[in-house]
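Methods — Computational structure assignment.
A single polypeptide chain was analysed. Its primary sequence is given first, followed by the predicted tertiary structure written as structure tokens.
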Amino acid sequence: SVDIDKEWNSKTFVGTFTLKLTVPHPAVPSGSWSGASSADEVQYSIDGSLFTSYGVYVQASSGITTIPQIKEPLTYNWGTANGLDYHQDGVRYKERTIQLKCLVEANSFPDLLNKTMAFFALLTKNRTLRLKIVAGGTVLVYEVICKDEVRLVPDFSHQNKCVGTFTLRLTEPEPVKRVLSGSGSCTVTVRSKSPVNIYWGGGDHAFGVSGNDVAQTVSHNAPDGFVIITGEPNDFTSFTSNFTTLWSRLL
């Protein structure tokens, strides 16, 4: 319905209205995604498996470059003092939430189920997952978990084709990190005032490295060539590695 509101004075007569339109299939693009490839195409992968190898394409993303919310500092409400006493030893952040709006194109409904179930199996691991995004030669990596439901919505309106859409909601528990790149075995020597967790890739990790401002050295193979060191790089009092620093402090 369109309702017209009338307003007039001695010289003019003005009408205003709000036009509401409905798009029957807002999540389904008009063209075909099959075989889509480009040198500038953004690539998404989980634990080294490309989304596109499962027929999954990312239509839109959010949270990838969003700075997470700052944690509330400790407060003390002393009865012998006015107001509150705030204590904050540096800024600390809450977890990051990444949302990927995805589309799957299949030949039939069974084909759609086979593709999506194979893809969803990547998410059901009892550990963090390595999400990697490559855009224009820039590499972003995240250690994430998938703790929210993933709801597949099939669409049968396309002739000889079945399209499905879903939104993948991923949580990065430790959003502040240093990222290294290289090949083979990575050796890290770090001295930090706060605890450091190192993710070598493929589910391997070293938790609680340093943290007492005492230098510690650890080594491990990096299967995908990237090592994520979480914690607060600003607390590192010394740091060396045989790998190249890709991001000194990625937030």
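Note: Residues 25-39 have pLDDT under 50 and may be disordered.
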